[in-house]
Amino acid sequence: MLPSRWLALSLFIAVCCVLAKADTSPAERLICAARRAAAAAPSSRAYNRLALGYARRARETGDPSFYERAHDAVALSLEAEPGNYGARRVRVWALLGQHKFAQALEAAQALNKEFPDDVIVYGFLSDAYTELGRYEEAVEAAQWMLDMRPGNIPGLTRAAYLREIHGEIGGAVELMSQALNRTPGSETEDRAWILSQLAHLDLSRGRAGEALELAEHALAAFPGYHYALAEQGRALLALNRPTEAVAALRKRYEAAPHPENLFELAAALEKAELGTEAESAFRRFEQGARAEMNEQDNCNRELIFYYADYADDPEEALRVAKEEISRRGDLLTRDAYAWALHRNGRGAEAWEQLAPALALNTQNVRILYRAGVVAAANGNLARATELFEESLAVNPKSTVADSARAALKPLAAEASNKKGNQS
User: Is the dihedral of CA 218, 232, 234, 207 positive or negative?
Assistant: First the structure.
């Protein structure tokens, strides 16, 4: 028997649910149904569905507080049925959402040992391995998903992301497109998320117009969606429409007011030549970022680049980078750490951090450009030239394209002089 306080809570939330608007999201509908079920007959199953609804709502809104609500629902489920598998599985999802990757990995590994045929748990393993930079294990887990249940949507999207990491952008698009085709129209947020990912992939290879169209389709499917607004803003910047980009990124920050979103807005404001507002936004970003820099869910990568490139404080950039690299070794964190090392004149160490990323055949134009800068600083001009040219070949209209072209000019001149001297 559950304590009376939980029964009272269940009845209260059920009443609130009845009063909710009919125009609700998939997660909201799941939450309402689970609340009604828990109010009528409290059970682990009802609380597990409630926890699942909260975890889904966190992605819909970008509000991490829903993960805490998911944990609360899991606690109720475990109180109703100690040790039940469903509650422990949803808890892993919430841990991943809170960026507690090492803890999530340990919990997912325990579940996998108990039930090695659970496809979703392999997805959690793949997520945790990916975020920790353990890509071979991530690929293996994602492959298990597709081997066990060919064509399943979670397996397709994870495999797509891993293909992107390994530089296979075309393959990533193919898998994401398959996932979109298999997603029911009623799952509006899922479809909007996949469309946003497709927009990101198109933008990464210089197809800004197509990316903008996909982002707008995502917004039509799920209005105000923060992921879609981000891709819309990035595409507009790539199309040299900074004022419209600022409007999109401002809406995104209003929908999901996280410091990392403010950082991107501040950079767009600067590009739109709104200097005073950009400076204010950068200051507010720094305050917000530092407030959460010791949390697992933080924006330390953005903070590293802020100190390295905007605030001219490379020592602080490196201090933050050292803290973050101790938590995770994924591609993007290594890139940020390498850049902080470079800005502190530690080029050899920076190259050591970039080597694993380049070995993955990354097609991330920013990483390729920064690797070129590091190679040039280390005196490896031939390698620097290759990296700048590769960045431009992937996306000749990227945010670093002009910088890459500018960097190539003196390298080409120096190569020409060497050739002339040799002759």
Answer: positive
